[in-house]
Specification:
7-stranded mixed β-sheet; binds nicotinamide-adenine-dinucleotide; binds hexan-1-ol; binds zinc ion; ADH-like_N
């Protein structure tokens, strides 16, 4: 099968022929129809995180496709069914985290497109317990980004604890952020969008943001305070550490900042104002299978329409260069077959 392989950190991916994987017990083989390209895939290719990906990785964890073969003992999937892979590719199911609704924190978890091969190839493997069940009638291009961007920002917005009618800042209006604006609007929140690129802010307005701030042109903290009175919550999806240091200052007293963006590095946090204003800073990673089912339901009900540009697998290195330059509006989706 044709696949894009990370042959070495920070080197271009090699698009080449590799063997079609065989489904093991409890697994299914999926013919990939479309896959989103997440900035995490770029981090994996660049090797810029503390934990390296598997050797000869096939990235991709927003893969949508059709089950074509079942491994031994599979009982909950059938050939022809439409499924997706996800970052949370599998978890142990028996540890304290798995038992208490936090399978995303399971120490035995496997991660699609990072620890196990993902969807940047014509076929991929899924674990029957964690394969995303795709709603009937889903658009192959639109539904793929829900598998990571969608579930991540949906969970992140829940973690901000922002209520309907209250203000949430979405900082970073890329693949995740432009979908976050839509989930926030659908969840009844008022949205203020922050990015460093006017084109992204235009996209945010298109998707329902009431306030937009270009952090490259003005102080985003002062602008958010002036135009919202301070946000009840801030969701940071940006790929620059600067956005993380700015987030707490955008909050009103008692506000919650949720970080999902993962640029390498650290951020400054002012102790006194964090304590005095009772600011909560929370990390959030993807979502559980239940969160994903809920995020897919928002999509199935027509509340979420990712802005998509379709590209080819052979152009993945060019896509990564444009992503690194912050030039991608919405989400890139690669399509392998028409279906
Ligand atoms: N926590 C999780 O579970 C999770 C899940 C998916 C992705 N991620 C991470 O989220 C990040 C974003 O992913 P993506 O696919 O949306 O990336 P993307 O490249 O599509 O978008 C990044 C956005 O950040 C904006 N940006 C850059 N500097 C900024 C600044 N100083 N202030 C505000 N905005 C700024 C860019 O203009 C761009 O719009 C990546 O680091 C990715 O690894 C985390
Ligand atoms: C710690 C890595 C989290 C990445 C989630 C999928 O983009
Ligand atoms: Zn992702
Ligand atoms: Zn577990």
């Amino acid at each position: 099968m044709r696949a894009a392989v990370v042959v070495a950190p920070d080197k271009p991916l090699l698009v080449t022929e590799v063997p079609i994987p065989a489904p093991g017990p409890g697994q299914a083989l999926v013919r990939v129809i479309t896959t989103g390209v997440c900035h995490t895939d770029l981090h994996a290719a660049r090797g810029d995180w503390p934990v390296p990906p598997k050797a000869d990785l096939i990235p991709g964890h927003e893969g949508y496709g059709e089950v074509v073969a079942l491994g031994e003992g599979v009982t909950t999937l059938s050939v022809g069914e439409k499924v997706g892979n996800a970052w949370l590719w599998s978890a142990c199911g028996t540890c304290e985290y798995c038992r208490t609704g936090w399978e995303t924190l399971c120490l035995q978890q496997k991660n699609g497109g990072y620890g196990v091969d993902g969807s940047f190839g014509e076929y991929m493997l899924v674990d029957e317990r964690f394969a995303a069940r795709i709603p009937e009638g889903s658009d192959p291009d639109e539904v793929a980004p829900i598998l990571c961007a969608g579930v991540t920002v949906y969970k992140g917005l829940k973690e901000t604890e922002v209520k309907p009618g209250q203000w949430v800042v979405i900082s970073g209006i890329g693949g995740l952020g432009h979908v976050a604006v839509q989930y926030a609007v659908a969840m009844g929140m008022r949205v203020a969008a922050v990015d460093v690129d006017d084109a992204k802010l235009l996209l945010a307005k298109h998707h329902g943001a009431e306030v937009t701030v270009n952090a490259a042109k003005t102080d985003p903290v002062a602008a958010i305070q002036e135009r919202t009175g301070g946000a009840h919550g801030v969701l940071v999806t940006a790929v620059h550490t600067e956005a993380f240091g700015q987030a707490t200052g955008m909050c009103r007293r008692g506000g919650t900042v949720v970080f999902v963006g993962l640029p390498p590095g650290t951020f400054p946090a002012d102790i006194f104002s964090t304590v005095l204003n009772r600011i909560t800073i929370r990390g959030s990673i993807v979502g559980t299978r239940q969160d994903l089912a809920e995020a897919l339901d928002f999509y199935a009900r027509g509340k979420i329409h990712p802005t998509i540009t379709e590209e080819k697998l052979d152009d993945i290195n060019d896509v990564f260069e444009r992503m690194e330059a912050g030039k991608i509006e919405g989400r890139i989706v690669m399509r392998y077959v028409d279906a």
